[in-house]
Amino acid sequence: MGAGVPNADQRLDARDLAILELVQRNADWSHGEIGRQIGLSVSAVNDRIRRMVAAKVIRGWTADLDPGALGLHLLAFVNVLIDRAELIPAFAERIAAYPEVQECHHLAGDWNYILKVRVPTTAALENFISCELKEKLKVSRTATTIVLRSLKDSPALPIMNGGAAR
Amino acid sequence: MGAGVPNADQRLDARDLAILELVQRNADWSHGEIGRQIGLSVSAVNDRIRRMVAAKVIRGWTADLDPGALGLHLLAFVNVLIDRAELIPAFAERIAAYPEVQECHHLAGDWNYILKVRVPTTAALENFISCELKEKLKVSRTATTIVLRSLKDSPALPIMNGGAAR
DNA sequence: CCTGAAAGCAAGTCGGG
DNA sequence: CCCGACTTGCTTTCAGG
Questions:
Q1: How distant is the Cα of B159 from the closest Cα of chain A, in angstroms?
Q2: In a domain, A2, yes or no
Q3: Contact yes or no for A153 and B25 at CB 8 A
């Protein structure tokens, strides 16, 4: 990939941002309905969306599922420490393949990684930490925090329309 | 099953789960293409998706956007402590309204909440923590961890197809 | 780059098995 | 509960300003 700023040539204007704000909240609206809400024709909306998909600003379209309906009643954040540096590449390569790991972020701080993990039960969590993380992936230490309730859990990104104040 | 199980009557079979796995990865496939992949007719796929939307198993449809393309170059997890219990309801009521807060989870452990926060710069993060969290929302203490790199950051949920092994 | 009309295609609705 | 044809509506394209 090129050096520097990856979106230097993307030039999203206020109408693009308005479209993004709408489609990340409800991708099911027709292009006509989007156009009506922001004062644009159907074709213009279509063009802009196509361009943003091509530019990878829009990476894809997904269904938003209810974890509880799928039996995923437990959400936890697992901090991960790996003592020996030579074990980190293997961990980094394999951790993303676990479906119960929704997120894995490399951290600046006391821990190497933080994982967002969704499982049905505490038994499944224990199995994941003991067997997968510690045994297979050679994680030295973990610190797990159980989520009691999610007040907000949205993939929606903050979109600043021309720096408008709150 | 005992009372209190919210999805006791939903009865998702293996075909429903297969559909969910597909649409959460790519909601753009036509019902015909989904049916071809799992061996079902267009109408059957349509019926099942309609039923799962009505049952709120599918909560909606969203566009997956690239944070970097929107200038959101900083991701951080902010742990929040609120000393005085009477300040917690106001926090809980107002925190979800912040667009830079992607997630807010009530925790079991040393901290009250963990926030997943996306902002353009460290300056914006400092402003959010100092002005919004500490000043306006009366948060007592925070511990912020900066994300250096996200190895995985997906809203996709783990869907267990009849206990299939990894 | 946006508009407006025309064509292609998928979603949603039927009756039937 | 699944299938197949029909109808409706949206997406997509095209010519034009």
A1: 7
A2: no
A3: no
Calculate ∠ Cα B48-B49-B54, nearest 5°. Answer: 100
The rounded average pLDDT for each run of 10 residues, N- to C-terminus, in chain B (166 residues) is: 44 93 95 94 95 95 96 97 96 98 96 98 98 97 98 95 44
Q: Note whether B48 and B87 are same-domain residues.
A: no
Q: Which of A5, A35, A55 is the last residue of a domain?
A: A55
Query: Domain span at residue B97?
Result: 67-147
B92 and B142 housed in the same domain: yes
Mutate to test the interface with A, among B151, B153, B161, B166 (most CBs of A within 10 A): B151
Number of domains into which chain A is organized: 2
Give the pLDDT score at B2: 35
Whole-prediction pTM: 0.91
Distance B56 CA to C9 C1' (A): 28
B143 and B71 in a single domain? The answer is yes
A157 with B70: Cβ contact below 8 A: yes
The single-letter DSSP state of residue B14 is H
Mapping DSSP to helix (H, G, I), strand (E, B) and coil, where does residue A81 land?
Answer: strand
Residue A59 in contact with residue B64, Cβ under 8 Å?
yes
Which candidate in A20, A34, A62 is best for mutational testing of the B interface (most B CBs within 10 A)? A62
Beta strands in chain B (DSSP E): 58-65, 74-81, 101-108, 113-119, 141-153
Whether residue B84 sits in one domain with residue B34: no
Q: Is residue A166 part of a domain?
A: no
* Residue B18 and residue B73 share a domain: no
pLDDT at A165: 36
Distances (CA, A) of B44 to A17, A65, B38: 36, 20, 11
For residue B1, what pLDDT is reported?
38
Q: Does A76 touch chain B (CB under 8 A)?
A: no
Q: Write the pLDDT tens digit of every residue in A44-88.
A: 999 999 999 999 999 999 999 999 999 999 999 999 999 999 999
* Residue A25 counted as domain residue: yes
Judged by a CB distance cut-off of 8 A, whether residue B105 touches chain A is yes
CB of A11 within 8 Å of any CB in chain B? Answer: no
Residues of chain B with Cβ-Cβ distance to A101 below 8 Å are 152
Q: In this predicted model, which residue has the larger pLDDT, A100 or B165?
A: A100
Asked if B27 is an interface residue toward chain A (Cβ–Cβ < 8 A), one would say yes
